[in-house]
Amino acid sequence: MVLSKASSQSDDSIHSTFASRYVRDSLPRFKVPENSIPKEAAYQIINDELMLDGNPRLNLASFVTTWMEPECDKLIMASINKNYVDMDEYPVTTELQNRCVNMIAHLFNAPLGDGEAAVGVGTVGSSEAIMLAGLAFKRKWQNKMKALGKPCDKPNIVTGANVQVCWEKFARYFEVELKEVKLRDGYYVMDPEKAVEMVDENTICVAAILGSTLNGEFEDVKTLNDLLVKKNQETGWDTPIHVDAASGGFIAPFLYPELEWDFRLPLVKSINVSGHKYGLVYAGIGWVIWRNKEDLPEELIFHINYLGADQPTFTLNFSKGSSQVIAQYYQLIRLGYEGYKNIMENCQGNAMVLKAGLEKTGRFNIVSKDNGVPLVAFSLKDNSHHTEFEVSDMLRRFGWIVPAYTMPPDAQHVTVLRVVIREDFSRTLAERLVMDIQKVLHDLDTLPARVTEKMAKLEEHARNGVVVKKSAIEVQREITTAWMKFVADKKKTNGVC
Amino acid sequence: MAKSSADDDDELRRACEAKIEGTKDKILMSIRVAKSYGIYRKNWQIGSQLYGQARVLHSSIQEIVTIMVVTTTISDSDERLHCTFASRYARTSLPRFKIPEGSMPKEAAYQIVNDELMLDGNPRLNLASFVTTWMEPECDKLIMDSINKNYVDMDEYPVTTELQNRCVNMIAHLFHAPVGDDETAIGVGTVGSSEAIMLAGLAFKRKWQAKRKAQGKPYDKPNIVTGANVQVCWEKFARYFEVELKEVKLKEGYYIMDPAEAVDMVDENTICVAAILGSTLTGEFEDVKLLNELLTEKNNKTGWDTPIHVDAASGGFIAPFLFPELEWDFRLPLVKSINVSGHKYGLVYAGVGWVIWRNKDDLPEELVFHINYLGSDQPTFTLNFSKGSCQIIAQYYQFIRLGLEGYKSIMENCMENARLLREEMAKTGRFVIVSKDIGVPLVAFALKDSSRFTVFQISESLRRFGWIVPAYTMPPDAEHIAVLRVVIREDLSHSLAERLVSDIQKVLKELDELPPRVSTKAAHVTAVNDEESNKDAHVTAVTDETHKVNADRHHLKKSTVETQKEIFNYWRRISDKKTSGVC
Question: What is the ipTM metric for this complex?
Answer without folding.
Answer: 0.85
